[in-house]
């Protein structure tokens, strides 16, 4: 019997748990763990969650707030990237024997490290993996067809996880390029905020295409300098996720951008990974001497240091250059 635990009962964790328990491989049990005891008791009773309206949890899915559930064979970590370090520190003992799979997209603002480095530091005996790519939780939960990428440096473990976590409609590709997969997922959120601000500010779809493309060039530059392979960035986690997130109001990052562009407020309780990651990526770019003008504009916007017209002027006033 393989025990899969999903840690984090937000939109993505719940969607993954639902997808995996809807058609579990033989001899597999799926448990959704959340930290909020009252909330998890309510979820167990009602089988419904406000995070995914209209969804009913399948009967095969166990939900709990008991941290013992984290002592599973495979644990999918679907907590926000900025919460991952704290989560790992708090639950290190339970996770010690597990195969951890990051399911979050971001760069930790304090350490400037991605989820798999944080996992390797907290759980030194583990071989961390990451599951990422273009998919909204609501689409996965509804059983719509989606494709993600599973990255693990150990090819045997990666192949096992790919089989375990694929379903008839959730198709997993595999890569050994963990750095590329996690940076593709983290950095696309920053560019999605820029694209949302562009549309929210009435700058037009042509400007958005330019931002998306030049933002992608920036993503590739930083990721490759940090050890990623270019092909990974051209795949599902990178271009694929950027296209989804930078063009859809289903994305929270894009919606934050829309609000910034329109000069409207935005609920600070909503998980928007790109806001902190813009600052982290800018710091990494500074450390490596990599120009990141779109990321700098996003960091300036989210911190309130720049208005949209100011950010636009900075981008347009840059010296003319070759397209690389
Ligand atoms: N929602 C999506 O469509 C989607 C798709 C792909 C990837 N992701 C990624 O999944 C991650 C989680 O996003 P989400 O959409 O589930 O967000 P969410 O806001 O819906 O849920 C986050 C959950 O994490 C829990 N949490 C926060 N800090 C915690 C901590 N220290 N310990 C334990 N639990 C904690 C919260 O209580 C909440 O239940 C993000 O990195 C996001 O980029 C989301
Ligand atoms: O709602 P967002 O902006 O966090 O995007 C969700 C996923 O990352 C899309 O792949």
From TrEMBL:
GO cellular component: cytosol
Record-stated family: Belongs to the NAD-dependent glycerol-3-phosphate dehydrogenase family.
Ranges for domain Glycerol-3-phosphate dehydrogenase NAD-dependent N-terminal: 4-156
Name this protein carries in UniProt: Glycerol-3-phosphate dehydrogenase [NAD(P)+]
GO biological process entries: carbohydrate metabolic process; glycerol-3-phosphate biosynthetic process; glycerol-3-phosphate catabolic process; glycerophospholipid metabolic process; phospholipid biosynthetic process
Binding site for NAD(+): 8-13, 137, 252
Gene: gpsA
Subcellular location field: Cytoplasm
Glycerol-3-phosphate dehydrogenase NAD-dependent C-terminal domain span: 177-312
GO MF, one example: NAD binding
Job of this protein: Catalyzes the reduction of the glycolytic intermediate dihydroxyacetone phosphate (DHAP) to sn-glycerol 3-phosphate (G3P), the key precursor for phospholipid synthesis.
